[in-house]
Amino acid sequence: LEELRSKNEILNFVSERDELTQIKNRRGFMEQAMKMNRIYKNRKAIILFADMDGLKKINDTYGHEVGDAAIKAMALILNDVKPDSSFFCLRYGGDEFLLMGSCDNEDEAANIQKQIEKKIDAYNSSGMLPAALSASIGHIISSPDEPQMVMEDYIRTADKMMYRIKQERKRDFRWRKRKVTTGMSQKPAAGSTQSS
């Protein structure tokens, strides 16, 4: 009986872990979220949704081994910014991650996001990968005063906020690229003179 219990615990542990990153997967997330809800049911919580930028380009340019290394690096970064024991992160799918924990206000949430960005910058400066890590991040703070909202609602809202930020980053990148290209194309015509 003890041996059977031990085997079941091992199976449960494995089934709740993402094989590549060794952080929780979706199943593990739901188990942990329900546990957290029981413990922190009267407190606010942050649900942060992070989506890696340009993973397909990394895979296409450097191969899937480097792409997998980038995914593992992002998981380590998110796992490393957890402010306290209430926080946990998971690989939601492909290049998407969730970070969740007790969080009282937007200032705390902004600080968590800033820490993630700093760690991404530090990782890129280390030169451990030939490609730079980047992520679009959106978040929402849940409230016990909103009993009509369920976990899936919060995740969808955080995902929408992340997607909006990703689109803004893409527009900003295209604008900067167009500005640089336009500036480079404005060369003096052949034979013209420039005033000094």
Describe the structure.
By secondary structure, this protein is an alpha+beta fold. The chain is 56% helix and 15% strand. The protein has 6 helices and 4 strands; from the N terminus they run H-H-E-H-H-E-E-H-E-H. It has a 4-stranded antiparallel beta sheet with strand order 2-3-1-4, sandwiched between helices. Helix 4 crosses helix 5 (106-126). The longest helix has 35 residues, at 151-185. It is globular and about 45 Å long.
List keywords for this structure.
196 residues; alpha+beta; four-stranded antiparallel beta sheet; 4 strands; 56% helix; 15% strand; disordered C terminus
- Distance from N terminus to C terminus (CA atoms, Å) equals 90 Å
Uncertain parts = 184-196
Class from helix and strand fractions: alpha+beta
Strand proportion, as a percent range, falls in: 5-15%
- Shape descriptor reads globular
Number of helices: 6
- Give the topology string: H per helix, E per strand: HHEHHEEHEH
Indicate the mean pLDDT: 80
Q: Summarize the amount of helix as a percent range.
A: 55-70%
Radius of gyration, in angstroms, nearest whole number = 22 Å
Largest sheet: 4 strands, antiparallel
Order of strands, main sheet, comes to 2-3-1-4
**How many distinct beta strands?**
4
Topology (SSEs and partners):
Layout lengths: L1 H14 L10 H14 L5 E8 L2 H8 L1 H17 L7 E6 L2 E7 L3 H21 L8 E8 L8 H35 L11
Antiparallel strand pairs: 1-3, 1-4, 2-3
Helix pairs in contact: 3-4, 4-5
Short description:
The protein is an alpha+beta fold and 196 residues long.
